[in-house]
Specification:
heterotrimer; A alpha+beta; B mainly alpha; C alpha+beta; B: mainly alpha; two-stranded antiparallel sheet; 6 strands; globular; C: alpha+beta; 8-stranded antiparallel sheet; 4-stranded antiparallel sheet; 10 helices
Chain lengths: 364, 601, 454
């Protein structure tokens, strides 16, 4: 029994030596044949051709007016299906013409809304000044008045609106071809009329959707500090949303306090909490009744107190919403009504201990 | 043959069957104790699949703890479903034991120290109580790790992220958030989150009282009232049977399957069969060999039942392999079948030995793959085709099967050749007087052949099958890819691995036909086939690139190193000059090989 | 003891392993050919070539840890000579033997490439059959196996040389009449001629990759390539810090191109080439503009999710848009996406099904197919091209179809859809080889049984 190595034995290698020239020549010949097939691909040339322009799809249209006035920049905007916008275009322009700035105070400007327009309840978001339902309620068309600081950039806002309806942004030098200089209440303003392929997403109250590029700010390790009240047990975070969760146990019942940071309007969040304890979305009166303004970490915050029906387990939620940058901070206490009542004072004391680490707020 | 030797195999099989029977019977249902077994059968929706709550508990616990049981106080080996119940009801009682269960596995000393935990070598498992106060640190560590690109993360980063996710899972279970346990009131509607369903019910808009029924079980459990618990479970089960008859039945079967642990049982039987087969070469040859054979047949029956049970649960008949776990199980099954066939034909114990060793080994490998999650999980859209799963995947795995069997036959050749004098002796002499060997399919001629020649014939035959299956399976995979996205061959690591197996098998056959290698050469090259197949099967996944990179696991790398090391050692031994081979030194009574060379054919 | 029992199953029963012809002097033309071919037909050569093939495949697999599949294809498989870096062994060690991650070994060694080994194996195979050709039942299996392998090799050759993979991203409601050829790019200059028509001039990526100054009569300017990146990434800048060539996105951030590692070539990880160019007035050194362009700036790069501003310049009073985009191939047909659905398993993000409902209109052939459904494992075939469901836009607002043209698929247009997918060279080859093996090994087994039980 022998084990031969899988290599050429001596006779084979002699044969190989003898045959090498022919051997190699044959192989090369065959290789060349394959190479010819493989090698005959030429470099592609520079080409010139004419082609039909791609058909532009129009599924959405935005009409917007941007007017800087009294240390603020005001935006009047209507966005929706192209046909609907066309129908209400004249009304919108009339509305813009009716704008009159009165100065400082609770209502720094007046307007005369077309008859068919329905003014919507005061939105929780302070920058959203007013909103109107345009036309029949099923058309879902809305006009808004929003204001920002005095430094708002024309280009950035136009590009943001373009993005919302699926249009590529433009460069500074192209801006002039898109905007139209107009005057609102005697002051210079710009009018933009855009049509794009993307249907606008419907956020709460037809708010412009959060732009996908607004990446969540990098979470600093300790943006907020507070004193943990006695009897509150810190729990691991459940969904990666809450920064911190505390469990408060009293006998057999437990309540939960949470510190969270998220987006969304004040109204939408209140309605979400109300849903959790079996309440219908808030009417303006309810919202006004349940909400008060408090100071947390030196800033103004909204404080809501909601109690659910007994049928739904008699749950109560205390929530504080503190807008900060793009997002808001939420401090909530949720649990059986009597336990929450007992803990209300502790919760408010906890709120007073909240401090923010300045400079750890993430991107502006 | 004496009566005793005839009875031994029957006795062995009977003992095996008894063990199986005991494992099969459900735990007794003492009305004074909580009937966890019944509770286990409750169907829930988890990871996109309706499954018994038992499977959800087991897979969750496997992920968190790398085990399916836990230690409850002093009682070890408690079922996962008990842990799940403890966790789900933890917020219903003042003093929940869930916080004390040591289940969170942190097997990284760096992380253990960073968290200031006490060392628990060999155990590595911690309770919520032990971790309390460290959640923020864990979250910070996990967030830092999350910012590091995946390829640059080290073990510490990975474990921190895993621990964080495990804690999130725990809290979700304890708060019943994201627990889609409430079945739809009518078929076709989505399952509901417990909290949503409960909210809807309290709100008055509920479709059914299911959340209440579910909650009743948890409350009874929290109250530690077996009577109430058993009643609530029975009522819930009855309700589930009405709403989801088919899924409830399947859930019941799956719980039985989980409880019976057929693959584990089969492994035990294979190990015993292998021991018997090994012993048969030492003494008491034929009765032991037949015992090993029939024990293997029994184990194969269990193994087969389990494979078809999986098909029933998945509702994919003819599909043996849907993930790495099931492929390991299937490969074991194939190896055992080939082993049995070899044994039927050759009756020299080698088939039984190789088949049972491979059966045990592969199922063991499958078991260590378990913590990747639910082994019956749904398939990605691109894989969701029974035709290709049943053809390409099955055939390519049969290719692995045949290559491994050939490789292990090669190992048998080397071991028997170096460590025993048997290789150069005639099979008829080794295995009794010939009357047993002669019975059945064993060709008479083999009695007059040396064991080495018989082994080589076996290896050669199996290699032919290996070439056929690995080639056909690989090309079928290419055709599937061509059908799916128009690329027959993508040079993806897994595809390349399969190609290497085909080339290697073809190389051995051509080397043999070309006379470059003879008996010993074929055996050694077949062992190299083990390395090649392990590379294709596991190694390519480790690279973490390509379309088939579905099974990355750093523990596998270590296991692979060990396997490759062992094969290299065997190859080295197999390549030792013949003077070190016991079989070659021993003066053989007859030297037929030499004679054959003397007389030209 | 009979002779048959003792005959070792050593030699290939049909192919003589030694080379008896070698010694004889050639007489006649055919004999000469045989005389030349015999050493090439050696089984030993086969074994050596197979061993080398295994190694090149292995190296080509390891190389994918660091390199994209297209680079690996070019450097290992579709080449005559491959230079294997020693680093591949380090990589193996890093994955399996805990070699430190930062270990790097420079240098490389030459190794026969895929074309060479494939070609030699083919030659070896053909020579073996020429030298030892015999048409007998016993050899029919071998003949079938080997012809099947020849078909397979030819198929890979045809695919390697002529197959084109491209992508067609379509938004819901959109109609598209061109495809983006995979892993290519071109620098396009587009000028609006009138309301309906654009005038387009494109420089192919292969020319850009060479670098240097590119001049052509059809180009409005001379193009000086400062850098060509095989794959690129985008760097984010705020308005204040953005360099002059930064490109704005809708959200007010600005981006410039940066080099990136290569991807592995599957649909979600295509390479995104980039180029930095200086545009000069023809035959002068007057700079018209400087642009850093990446295919990532194209709307389809992120499935319309991120949009970047178009870049343009004006020369001789004409305004041109300049863009680096995947090579665009216009088709005689147009495809409209009517509907797109994307299902996931409940409670997970695991995809269950994607499905595009499209309409294909080809005025040149008078074809109009409506409501064709394309989903996983169910492509649409039309005019030698196959359309596969390959991806979708992040917000499910559109689909990405993979469009493949492979001349190796010989299905006539009249063939029914279900059959057409199987009328390909690989399927033919698979059938031939598998059948051949069944016949060959079956004959062996029969012979074995007949001999043993006789």
């Amino acid at each position: 029994m022998s084990f031969s190595n899988p290599s050429f034995d001596s006779s084979a290698s002699r044969a190989r030596c003898r045959w090498r020239p022919r051997h190699v020549a044959s192989v090369l010949a065959c290789a060349l044949a394959v190479g010819l097939i493989g090698g005959c691909r030429e470099d592609e040339p520079i080409r010139n051709y004419q082609v039909s322009k791609p058909l532009a799809l129009v599924n959405a249209r935005t009409l917007a007016v941007m007017a800087p006035r009294n240390d603020r920049t005001w935006f009047f905007k209507m966005s929706g299906a192209p046909a609907e916008i066309e129908k209400h275009r004249a009304e919108f322009m009339q509305f813009v013409e009716s704008i009159h700035w009165t100065g400082e105070g609770a209502k720094p400007l007046t307007w005369k809304a077309p008859e068919a327009w329905q003014e919507q309840p005061a939105p929780g978001n302070e920058m959203r000044f007013a909103a109107f339902r345009v036309g029949p309620s099923d058309a879902d068309l809305e006009a808004t008045i929003v204001y920002l600081g005095p430094e708002a950039s024309r280009l950035d806002n136009v590009n943001r609106w373009r993005g919302q309806i699926g249009l590529r942004p433009v460069l500074e030098e192209d801006l002039s071809s898109i905007i139209k200089e107009i005057r609102v209440d005697g002051a210079p303003a710009i009018l933009v009329d855009l049509s794009g392929p993307k249907r606008a997403k419907k956020g709460p109250m037809g708010m412009p959707p959060d732009h996908p590029t607004a990446a969540p700010p990098a979470a600093p390790s300790r943006p907020v500090t507070y004193d943990i009240p006695a009897g509150w047990n810190e729990q691991p975070d459940s969904k990666g949303i809450a920064l911190t969760t505390f469990q408060i146990t009293d006998g057999r019942r437990t309540a939960e306090a949470r510190v969270t940071r998220a987006g969304g309007s004040f109204r939408a969040n209140v309605d979400r909490w109300r849903g959790q304890i079996g309440l219908d979305p808030a009417t303006p009166e309810q919202l006004a009744r349940d909400t008060k303004t408090v100071t947390v970490a030196g800033a103004t915050a909204q404080y809501v107190d909601m109690t659910g029906s007994d049928k739904a387990g008699g749950q109560r939620i205390l929530a504080v919403v503190l807008p900060r940058g793009e997002q808001s901070w939420f401090f909530t206490l949720k649990g059986p009504a009597d336990l929450v009542a007992k803990q209300k004072e502790t919760f408010e004391k906890f709120l007073r201990s909240v401090r923010f680490d300045e400079g750890a707020g993430g991107k502006p | 043959m004496t009566l005793l030797s005839r009875l031994v195999p029957w006795g062995v099989v009977l003992v095996g069957a008894l063990v199986l029977f005991v494992k099969m019977s459900p735990p007794d249902d003492d009305p004074n104790r909580m009937n966890l077994y019944e509770f286990s059968k409750i169907p829930v929706m988890d990871q996109g699949r309706v499954k018994p709550i038992d499977t959800m508990a087991r897979t969750t616990m496997l992920t968190i703890s790398n085990r399916q049981t836990f230690k409850d106080g002093e009682q070890s080996g408690q079922p996962a479903v008990k842990w799940l119940l403890d966790v789900m009801s933890s917020r219903l009682s003042e003093k929940s034991v869930a916080l004390k269960h040591e289940v969170f596995r942190i097997d990284n000393d760096q992380l253990v120290h960073a968290l200031g935990l006490k060392d628990k070598p060999e155990f590595w498992r911690y309770s919520i109580n032990e971790l309390s106060g460290k959640f923020e640190t864990i979250q910070d560590l996990a967030r830092q790790a999350d910012k590091i690109p995946e390829k640059q993360r080290d073990a510490f980063n990975g474990k921190a992220m895993k621990l964080y996710h495990d804690l999130v899972t725990y809290v979700q279970l304890s708060t019943l958030e994201d627990a889609t346990v409430i079945p739809p009131a009518e078929a076709g509607k989505p399952w509901q989150d417990f909290r949503d369903a409960a909210g809807a019910m309290q709100h008055g808009g509920a479709e059914s009282a299911t959340p209440e029924k579910f909650f009743a079980m948890l409350v009874a459990y929290a109250k530690n009232s077996p009577t109430d618990f058993n009643k609530a479970v029975a009522s819930y089960r009855q309700y589930a049977n009405e709403v989801l008859p088919e899924q409830s039945q399947k859930a019941g079967f799956e719980v039985f399957f989980n409880h019976f642990e057929p693959f584990y049982d089969a492994t035990l039987l294979y190990i015993f069969a292998a021991l018997l087969a090994a012993a048969s070469w030492v003494a008491y040859t034929d009765p032991l060999r037949r015992s090993a054979f029939w024990l293997m047949v029994l184990a194969l029956a269990v193994h087969t039942w389990a494979l078809f049970g999986r098909m029933y649960l998945l509702n994919r008949y003819g599909v043996f392999v849907t993930n790495l776990y099931s492929s390991a199980v299937f490969i074991g099954w194939g190896c055992v079948i080939i082993g049995i066939l070899l044994e039927v034909v050759f009756r020299i114990g080698v088939g039984a030995m190789v088949g049972s060793v491979l059966g045990a080994l592969t199922v063991f490998v499958a078991h260590s793959l378990l913590d990747t999650g639910d082994t019956l999980a749904n398939l990605e859209a691109v894989l969701d085709t029974n035709f290709w799963l049943a053809t390409h995947v099955t055939v390519v795995n049969l290719g692995y099967v045949a290559t491994f069997v050939a490789g292990f036959l090669g190992i048998a050749y080397v071991v028997l050749g170096v460590a025993t004098p048997l290789l150069n002796r005639k099979t008829g002499e080794i295995f009794g007087d010939g009357s047993n060997v002669n019975a059945g399919l064993m060709p008479r001629a083999f009695q007059n052949m040396e064991l080495g020649r018989v082994l080589t014939a076996m290896i050669y035959g199996i290699l032919c099958f290996a070439t056929l299956f690995s080639f056909t399976g690989t090309v079928l995979g290419g055709i599937w890819a061509d059908q799916s996205w128009g690329r027959f061959w993508g040079w993806d690591p897994k595809e390349n691995g399969a190609l290497i197996i085909v080339l290697w098998n073809a190389l051995i056959l051509h080397a043999r036909w070309g006379g470059l290698v003879k008996q010993r050469g074929v055996a050694v090259l077949a062992i190299v086939g083990n390395i090649v197949t392990a590379w294709s099967y596991f190694g390519t996944n480790q690279l973490g690139v390509g379309l088939h990179a579905y099974g990355f696991d750093d523990r596998l790398a270590v296991a692979l190193d060990c396997f490759w090391g062992a094969q290299l050692l065997l190859i080295a031994v197999g390549s030792l000059p013949t003077r070190f081979w016991w079989s070659m030194r021993a003066p053989a009574p007859v030297r037929p090989a030499a004679r054959a060379r003397a007389q030209p054919a | 003891m009979s002779k048959t029992v003792d005959r070792p199953p050593r030699s290939h029963p049909e192919l003589p392993e030694v080379l008896p012809v070698a010694a004889a002097e050639p007489s006649g033309a055919w004999e000469t050919v045989k005389w030349v071919l015999t050493p090439i037909a050696s089984l030993r050569l086969t074994v050596v070539l197979m061993a080398l093939s295994i190694l090149i495949v292995f190296f080509g697999t390891l190389a994918q840890v660091d390199h994209g599949i297209f680079t690996v294809l070019q450097n290992y498989f579709r080449t005559w000579l491959a230079w294997i870096p020693f680093q591949v062994f380090v990589q193996f060690g890093q994955v399996f033997l805990s070699v430190p991650k930062e270990t790097h070994v420079s240098g490389s060694f030459p190794f026969p490439g895929g074309w060479l080994l494939g070609g030699l194996l083919l030659v070896n195979l053909l020579a073996a059959h020429l030298v030892r050709f015999k048409l007998t039942w016993k050899r029919s299996g071998i003949l079938l196996i080997h012809s099947g392998l020849v078909v397979m090799m030819l198929s890979e050759l045809i695919t390697g040389l002529f197959a084109v993979e491209a992508r067609m991203p379509i938004g819901i409601g959109e109609t598209t009449n061109y495809v983006d050829v995979a892993n290519t790019c071109e620098l396009a200059f587009v000028r609006s001629v009138n309301e309906q028509t654009d005038d387009v001039t494109v420089i192919p990526g292969s020319l850009l990759a060479k670098g240097g100054r590119i001049s052509d009569a059809s180009l409005p300017v001379d193009v000086e390539v400062a850098a060509y990146l095989k794959n690129s990434d985008l760097l984010e800048h705020s308005r204040g810090e953005a360099p002059a060539d930064a490109v704005p996105r809708n959200d007010g951030w600005f981006f410039t191109v940066a080099p990136a590692g290569e991807g592995n070539g599957f649909s979600d990880k295509d390479d995104s080439p980039a180029v930095r160019v200086r545009l000069l007035k023809k035959d002068t050194s007057d700079v018209v503009g400087y642009f850093g362009l990446s295919t990532l700036f194209e709307p389809n790069a992120f499935g319309r999710h991120y949009l970047f501003a178009e870049q343009h310049f004006t020369v001789d009073g004409k305004t041109y848009t300049i863009a680096l985009r995947p090579q665009r191939e216009y088709k005689p047909y147009a495809v409209t996406l009517k509907e797109f659905t994307h299902e996931v398993y409940p409670g997970t993000t695991k995809p269950k099904n994607y499905e595009s409902t499209v309409r294909l209109v080809d005025a040149s052939r008078g074809e109009d197919r409506d409501a064709v459904k394309i989903y996983m494992n169910n492509p649409m075939r039309y005019a030698g091209e196959t359309f596969y469901q390959a991806g979708f836009f992040p917000d499910d607002s559109g689909t990405i179809l993979q469009v493949v043209r492979n001349p190796g698929n010989f299905a006539p247009s009249a063939a029914p859809q279900w059959l057409a997918g199987y009328m390909t060279m690989p399927v033919l080859s698979c059938l031939m080889v598998s059948l051949g093996m069944v016949v060959h090994f079956g004959l062996h087994l029969l012979g074995f049984l007949r001999r043993r039980y006789a």
